[in-house]
Design goal:
Blueprint (H helix, E strand, L loop, with lengths): L2 H4 L3 H19 L17 H10 L7 H15 L6 H17 L2 H26 L4 H82 L3 H29 L4 H7 L6 H12 L4 E8 L8 H21 L3 E10 L2 E9 L13 H12 L3 E7 L2 E9 L8
Parallel strand pairs: 1-2
Antiparallel strand pairs: 2-3, 3-5, 4-5
Helix pairs in contact: 2-3, 2-5, 3-4, 3-5, 4-5, 5-6, 5-7, 6-7, 7-8, 7-11, 7-12, 10-11, 11-12
């Protein structure tokens, strides 16, 4: 035990000094708790008083020792003229032993002192055989059981307060972790939206600007500038839509601005214009049953997966036909995009691999599956998403 821990608390020093001083004053005035006893001289009552008073200095740091020595001092006080101050100091030592002692000691002392009080009361009644014997039991309870019960009550309240504070801190920590996870998830969602919305337009711009610089003819430059302008306008519109959503636009505005599978025709038209220079053609096969609604998150994810797949086809696909097939059955929405795989003429746009990651995240967040890879001379992207409202969490 370190010296700092053994150093008496300021309040304990004041309590010890005040208790001893009060006991000395009472002794000097002849106010004894057991007058008429003469086995020892009157000054002998000061010995238990000084011993118990000094124990007040370590009532917090050595509660078990102070209670043991204090009990012996209280018994010794009964063989003198007695001091009320000594008895009061003992009650405080009992209280401190419960409040500052070990948990096991704090649990046992109220029970032990209660049993002692009952035993003393019964013994006094049997010995004295008079109602006054009950006073001995009452005094015993006041000196021992009362302080122990008071200390146990206070300790329970303190422990309950500490537990409540810890629960509050844990709740705040969990809330902060949830907030951090929500921020990360929102950033990932924004990154996917930005990539899917802008990448295909910028890819078309990069391909056609490279073509315009590589093939020095008026027609090629004019066609390239037309595609560049169209994709610039579309990209700017998409950026404005996202900015509006980030500024907490209303739910109706968000729903109206969110792309849907009904816009796949327009999406393929833009891809057709962008992929013409690479010898690509695009075919849409929408095999969904009429009149079956698809949850908005699923519809947006399917649209973005098709959009990103078409962007990759424009950037990397060999000449040929790109097929987009969308179907729904057994509560599942299936998206399949196949594009030619191999060498291609003309300029290419660089890729980062982020698009495949974003498509996979979109599918898995909705509880669906996603695969992408080469199948012979074709590059195949397949996504299966839950198409029922109950299968999609908000």
């Amino acid at each position: 035990m370190t010296p700092t821990k053994l150093r008496p608390h300021r309040d304990d020093v004041l309590l010890a000094a005040g208790s001893v001083l009060a006991g000395l004053v009472l002794w000097s005035l002849g106010a004894h708790s057991s007058p008429g006893r003469e086995p020892l001289p009157a000054w002998a009552a000061l010995v238990p008083l000084l011993v118990l008073g000094s124990l007040e200095l370590v009532r917090r740091t050595l509660p078990r020792l102070t209670l043991t020595v204090g009990t012996a001092g209280l018994v010794a006080d009964q063989f003198t003229v007695g001091s009320i101050a000594t008895v009061l100091i003992f009650t405080d030592l009992m209280y401190a032993a419960v409040v500052y002692g070990k948990p096991a000691t704090a649990r046992r002392l109220p029970v032990t002192t209660g049993l002692i009080t009952v035993a003393v009361t019964i013994a006094a009644l049997v010995w004295l055989r008079s109602p006054e014997a009950l006073l001995i039991g009452v005094v015993t309870g006041i000196v021992s059981f009362g302080p122990a019960l008071t200390g146990a009550t206070l300790r329970n309240h303190r422990e309950a307060a500490v537990a409540a504070r810890l629960r509050a801190e844990q709740t705040a920590l969990l809330a902060e972790m949830d907030r951090a996870q929500a921020v990360v998830a929102e950033r990932a969602r924004m990154a996917r939206e930005l990539h899917d919305m802008v990448a295909n337009h910028l890819s078309a711009i990069a391909i056609h600007s490279t073509a315009a610089l590589s093939i020095d003819t008026a027609r090629t430059s004019r066609d390239a500038l037309g595609v560049i302008r169209e994709n610039s306008v579309q990209g700017l519109a998409e950026m404005r839509r996202l900015i509006g959503l980030l500024r907490e636009a209303g739910a109706e505005q968000e729903a109206a601005a969110t792309p849907s599978l009904d816009g796949l025709d327009a999406l393929l038209e833009r891809a057709r214009a962008g992929g013409a220079a690479g010898g690509l053609d695009f075919v849409l096969r929408d095999e969904r049953p009429a009149g079956e609604p698809v949850p908005a998150p699923v519809e947006l994810a399917a649209y973005r997966i098709v959009q990103e797949s078409l962007t990759n086809a424009v950037k990397h696909g060999a000449p040929g036909t790109v097929t987009v097939r969308v179907s729904a059955s057994d509560g599942l929405l299936s998206v399949l995009v196949e594009s030619p795989y191999g060498d291609r003429p003309g300029p290419r746009a660089p890729g980062s691999g982020v698009g495949l990651i974003g498509m996979r995240e979109r599918a898995e967040l909705l509880g669906g599956t996603f695969t992408a890879g080469r199948d012979g001379a074709r590059w195949r992207v397949r996504a299966t998403l839950p198409a029922k409202e109950k299968a999609v969490e908000a």
